[in-house]
Amino acid sequence: MFELFPIADPLPWPFTGIFWPIATTITAYLIFVLKLGPMLMANREPFKLRGVLKLYNIFQVIFNILLLSWGIHFLFWKRPYPDLSCIMILPFDHEMKNTERVISYLYYLNKIIDLLDTIFFVLRKSYKQITKLHLIHHVYMSSASYFFH
Q: Of 30, 86, 112, 125, most Cβ neighbours within 10 A?
């Protein structure tokens, strides 16, 4: 069981170490999306975020393509894991530990950045897109990424 939740990475990167930064971010996200955002937008016209959304989507596409490419290169060309059917976290003294660490951390940051999707829905008053499943997905992905990064 304890192998699933290893000792926290000793590097002091943002949103790592203690759980409070990500817990606070998720709590603020839910408060904004479920209560504060709709209250603030109640008497306003929806924001026109076409330019911001284009930049955000271009960033996400490029970021995810680069991260996927790096991950595939790491898994299949560098081959740090002898057997892909049972991938274990590399030990701290492994020569490729830093690469594993950075890839997983970037994935984790991406899950935090993904929370902006719902913020944009609120600012555009596209409330029909904000379902329980959508919220559960974003909360779960950012939380799980914290534990497994």
A: 112
Q: Whole-angstrom distance between the N-terminal and C-terminal Cα of the chain?
A: 16
Q: Is 134 a catalytic residue?
A: no
pLDDT recorded at residue 1: 42
Among candidate residues 73, 94, 134, 137, the one labeled active-site is 137
Task: Report how far Cα 135 is from the mean position of its chain's Cα atoms.
Answer: 13
pLDDT digits (tens, 9 = 90+) for 113-144: 999 999 999 999 999 999 999 999 999 999 99
Please state, in angstroms and rounded to a whole number, the distance separating the CA atoms of residues 22 and 83.
32
In residues, how long is the chain?
149
Question: What would the two tokens of residue 8 be?
Answer: 């926290």
pTM: 0.87
CA pseudo-torsion sign 93, 95, 100, 101? positive
